[in-house]
């Protein structure tokens, strides 16, 4: 089994390289070429709302999944507490079963200035069959990865907030020895830094909520797989949103995000994390996402978006659509991805999200007590 472990790595890397906005490590001629980031499951948009809007999220209005995009948004969240659950079968366009991303997240407002948040992300590759040099089946292995986040958000003024998040990452792609290269499960710690500016204003006589955000995610040392080390997918994101409130029943938000993978294209074991971030700017290739979100009576949402990523190996492009429904304290969201290229591995990607906002009952109790 040990001599066949790298076959598992090759399959996993191929899956991720095809299906994630962040490229994965590859194997060439029996050697690991560390020209890109490991654990790219951290770069997959986990929730349906952003998934339906071209993967934007740095400056959209806060919800239960905000920690995955920019935790600083939670300083301006309407509900004091919320929890969300998302599920996405992954790479259905390749006909692969058992590969999916699960995401659980939530937050709680401590007071008018402080909020805490946490999330758990789990990605499984399904069953991978090991084989010997003659193609005989040996053993079925189930690689998986997960991360756990905790964030603290501080509202510094009526229009500005900052956040810091800590993340534990575990990547279990298997274990073994290949040509003297010892491979084991990888563990790493990382941090996020987020900022948000939000202000109510008017544009063309229409009340408009403007927001601009910045988030740097997965800042940390390389993740080690035994003798092999790889960069984390450190990413810089900048974005803005203009939310036009036409009346009490109709609103339309437009968002635009830019993201830059802060990983060198030709990194190696001698390249430091700080040096890799600096070297990454030798290429100005960016990922760009834009999306619209229309709400009617704060009950039904229709979403659409577009994403293009010149920084990835396949320069992926896709259109996204989505729907949202709110009932009482519950919110349900659905999104669907439509690649612009034929036979794209992201074809048929769907996401489902369910959230609960702990606000209605508490507000009712306060009103009753005041009366």
From TrEMBL:
Residues 1-24 form the signal peptide. Residues 36-265 form the Type IX secretion system protein PorV domain. Keywords: Signal. It comes from the Bacteria. The keyword Ribonucleoprotein does not apply. This is Type IX secretion system outer membrane channel protein PorV. It comes from Solitalea agri. The lineage of its organism: Bacteria, Pseudomonadati, Bacteroidota, Sphingobacteriia, Sphingobacteriales. The gene is porV.
